Amino acid sequence: MNARGVQKSNINVDLDEECPESIGLIKLFGLKYNIHPAKCSRQCRISSHYKSIFEMISVLNYEHVFILEDDLIVSSDIFYLFSATLNIYQADKTIFCVSAWNDHHSVGDLTMLYRVQFMPGLGLVLSKDIIKEILKKWPHWTDFNWDVWIRESVLKDRVCIIPDVSRTFHIGGYGVHINPDFQQSHFERHFFRPEINVTISVENLENAEYSDLILYLAINSKKQIYDNLCKIAETAKSVDLHFRPLSRTELSAITRVVVMNADLKSNETFLTLFK
């Protein structure tokens, strides 16, 4: 509720059970809420809840919605990040979503955004057209992971916009897909900064411009050869935080083109770009 730009009148909390503690907290903050009682358990319960949410959003006919789950804490500029990307999201039909979460390695650039061929989750912006498409394709069966299904059956060749530095942090240690060990190994070490006050760079996010930037970095960045994927992670090091957009020259200085030797006996290599 302390995130900059938050408007309580635009927040709608959706519950899948009538929990007095949750309802009391919602009322304390003066927020609107709905209850869609769960009719099944585990991943079926989660998927059914999301379907109910998408159906409600579709009826309300919002142009875009920001979706956050209750086991996330957010950076102070998350709504600014989401809002800054709305124009490019609306104009570029190759963009499927905007996510606050970066599953990949971060170079500590608080201003930079990427196009990725994946739907990360953990804080999403979805347009009404995307939600209608999701509902139209929603499976008849119930026992499935809603986000995995979207990645496999709906995302197709589209991309999501993500920040270099995540704007959400996962705090739930128990759940259908989470336990304390996984929380510790996958989330606790993930870099997160609660207070962020920067100007987000939305340049080079259109498909052609982004491809041109990647090509520039591939040509001008230092190349490193590896024969083991694990060695890439071992050599990836954190750098100082960047509080302003970096130029192409500055980006190429901290970017590496990874040359993977898939078979040491052959000359075939695979090229990928990472920062």
Task: Give the overall shape.
Answer: globular
The number of distinct β-strands equals 12
Q: Structural class per helix/strand content?
A: alpha/beta
Average pLDDT metric: 87
Helix percentage range? 25-40%
Q: Could you name the CATH class of the largest domain? A: Alpha Beta
Evaluate the radius of gyration: 20 Å
In whole angstroms, the N-to-C terminal distance is 33 Å
Enter the CATH topology name of the largest domain.
Spore Coat Polysaccharide Biosynthesis Protein SpsA, Chain A
Query: Residue ranges: pLDDT <50 for 5 or more in a row?
Result: 264-275
Strand content: 15-25%
If classified by CATH, what would the architecture of the largest domain be? Alpha-Beta Complex
Overall domain count = 2
Taken in chain order, the helices and strands follow as: EHEHEEHHEEEHHEEHHEHHEE
CATH homology group of the largest domain: Spore Coat Polysaccharide Biosynthesis Protein SpsA, Chain A
Major sheet summary line: 5 strands, mixed
Major sheet strand order: 3-7-5-8-6
Task: Characterise this structure.
The chain is an alpha/beta fold and 275 residues long. The protein has two domains: 8-187, Spore Coat Polysaccharide Biosynthesis Protein SpsA, Chain A; 207-274, no CATH class. Helix content is 35%, strand content 19%. The protein has helices at 20-28, 42-60, 78-84, 86-91, 128-137, 146-153, 180-188, 207-220, 229-235, 248-254, and strands at residues 12-15, 32-35, 64-67, 72-74, 95-99, 113-116, 124-127, 159-163, 168-170, 222-226, 256-261, 269-274. It has a five-stranded mixed beta sheet. A hairpin with a 7-residue loop joins strand 11 (256-261) and strand 12. Helix 2 (42-60) packs across helix 5. The chain is globular, with a radius of gyration of 20 Å.
